[in-house]
Amino acid sequence: MYGFAKMISNLINAIEFNELTLGYRDSLAVTEFSGAIKLGSLTAVVGANGSGKSTIFKGIIGALKPISGNILFASHQEIAYLPQRSELDLSFPARVFDFVSLGLWSKRGLLGRITSSDRQCIANAIEKVGLSEVLHKTIDNLSGGQMQRAMFARVIVQDANIILLDEPFNAIDANTTIDLIDQVKAWHNEKRTIMVIMHDLNLVRKYFPNMILMAQKPLAWGETSKLLTSQIPMAARCSQSSEEMESACEVNNYVAFQSIHRQYCKGKNDVSTL
User: Fold this and answer.
1) What would the pLDDT profile of 110-154 be if each residue is shown by its tens digit?
2) Which class for 211: exposed (0-12), middle (13-18), buried (19 or more C-beta within 10 A)?
3) 129 burial class (0-12, 13-18, 19+ CB within 10 angstroms)?
4) Model confidence at 88, in pLDDT bands (50, 70, 90)?
5) Which pick of 30, 70, 99, 212 has the fewest CB atoms within 10 Å?
6) How much is the pLDDT for 86?
7) Residues 187, 24: contact at Cβ < 8 Å?
8) How far apart are CA 204 and CA 181, in angstroms?
């Protein structure tokens, strides 16, 4: 599960990144990423497409080996990872119950026997996300919102200390978003450590105490209330240059960004999403 990361018994944070660089073949996606995710924290990760958000998650779960630097975990941490729906093969005719049961693979293995208590746990998770009526429906017949609920149910079954959610609220209806936000809040109340890749800054401001602004490296990292202001239109666009992978970011609504003032761009976009 942890790939090329290390577990440190006396680490006071859930995750620590030390000069981490990640990439794909000849292309660097994340550079000089350093910082810490506190135990029990709820953090939104924001930035434009290609800014390295999903890459960081792949580094955490061990799917990508660091080019340099490392990732450290506190001891006794387990990870649950919810990928983007586009990364899943939904053509396989698995039932909702069977799909959610895959959350037990770390405890039972892919071919392990599911106990009666496991079945109750799966049923409870499915009920919690509001899918009891489609329990035996195949996932290829679910709507986008229903599929996202099923993915959340699978994470519930995993019962992990660290939860990574990659764009969990994209392309779903408002009611589903509210229900799944409630589940994220419940995890946070249980003192789990949660990182969520987000595009909607309105949701970030309302529900996420902490945030990281990414453009191949952290441009800002801290309390959301200090990094976002409600008085100024929300506008932030990040991009990268071709050769040096330098970030450029228009920041009209972020404060305390003195360290990146040279990276402002001149665009006049006024948007509420990244």
Assistant:
1) 666 788 999 999 999 999 999 999 988 999 999 999 999 999 999
2) buried
3) buried
4) confident
5) 70
6) 84
7) no
8) 11
Measuring CA to CA, how many Å separate 206 from each of 97, 185, 261, 265? 33, 12, 26, 27
- Do 274 and 201 form a contact (C-beta atoms < 8 A)? yes
Query: Is the per-residue pLDDT at 265 higher than 50?
Result: no
Query: Parallel, antiparallel, or unpaired: how do β-strands 68-74 and 13-24 relate?
Result: antiparallel
Task: Count Cβ neighbours within 10 Å for each residue of 21-52 and write b for 16 or more, e otherwise.
Answer: bbbeeeebbbbebeebbebebbbbbbbbeebb
Please give the model's pTM, rounded to 2 decimal places.
Answer: 0.82
Find the farthest-apart pair of alpha carbons in the chain and give their distance in angstroms, rounded. Answer: 60
pLDDT above 60 for 220: yes
Are 219 and 257 within 8 A, CB to CB? yes
The domains of the chain, with CATH numbers, are 1-78+160-232+252-262 (3.40.50.300), 89-158 (no CATH)
